[in-house]
């Protein structure tokens, strides 16, 4: 059972993930790109209840790590500190923010596959990327299984995927496995899933349709 997570990135997405995790009863440590003391005041105000540490210290004893930095900065995270760790890739490619990134220009390759190649020894799960940071708190239904929004996840690591399944459920959403990490391209920015609020049945249908579209295009 998950008890402690680390969130790398204290922008809007990272802060929302951290607050949602705290509300779900998890012990949360956050880290920014610099010294812990540089974000301590920000975290105290924006993420009350979170601990603050360097990235290396934050992940050291975490059960799971959420990487929520702007995609163009993902290489600022030292891959060595994530070796062997379960890592949620919550990032998206937003050209207005990230600029044009040639390594993410292949429409047949998902962004998480590129990220996974960089964090080669981490256990990557794509999740939390197709929900707005404000919706993460607004749409959470931790006390009821009725009317829950579904969130998809994708990974090549079954054990890591199971941990993220638990995380999403404790956050108050219906977790839906999309399959291997490569399938995560089905819920990247601009897709139907990315722009929709879906329940579990709707998510399964959308994933099935995305798979059919992919097969037809192959």
Automatic annotation (TrEMBL):
It comes from the Bacteria. It holds the Pfam family F420_oxidored. The keyword Ligase does not apply. Residues 4-93 form the Pyrroline-5-carboxylate reductase catalytic N-terminal domain. One of its GO terms (molecular function) is oxidoreductase activity. Keywords: Oxidoreductase. This is Pyrroline-5-carboxylate reductase catalytic N-terminal domain-containing protein.
């Amino acid at each position: 059972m998950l008890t402690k997570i680390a969130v790398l990135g204290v922008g809007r997405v990272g802060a929302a993930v951290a607050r949602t995790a705290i509300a779900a009863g998890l012990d949360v440590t956050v880290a920014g790109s610099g010294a812990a003391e540089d974000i301590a005041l920000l975290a105290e105000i924006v993420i009350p209840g979170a601990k603050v540490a360097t990235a290396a210290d934050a992940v050291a004893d975490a059960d799971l790590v959420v990487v929520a930095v702007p995609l163009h900065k993902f290489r600022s995270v030292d891959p060595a500190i994530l070796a062997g760790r379960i890592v949620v890739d919550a990032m998206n490619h937003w050209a207005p923010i990230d600029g044009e990134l040639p390594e993410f220009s292949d429409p047949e390759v998902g962004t998480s596959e590129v990220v996974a190649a960089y964090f080669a020894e981490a256990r990557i799960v794509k999740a939390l990327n197709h929900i707005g940071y404000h919706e993460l708190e607004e749409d959470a239904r931790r006390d009821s299984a009725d009317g829950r929004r579904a969130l998809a996840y994708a990974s090549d690591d079954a054990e890591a995927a199971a941990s993220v399944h638990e995380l999403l459920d404790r956050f108050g959403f219906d977790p839906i496995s999309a399959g291997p990490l490569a399938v995560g391209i089905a819920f990247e920015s601009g897709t139907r899933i990315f722009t929709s609020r879906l329940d579990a049945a709707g998510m399964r249908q959308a994933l099935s349709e995305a798979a059919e579209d992919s097969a037809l295009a192959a």
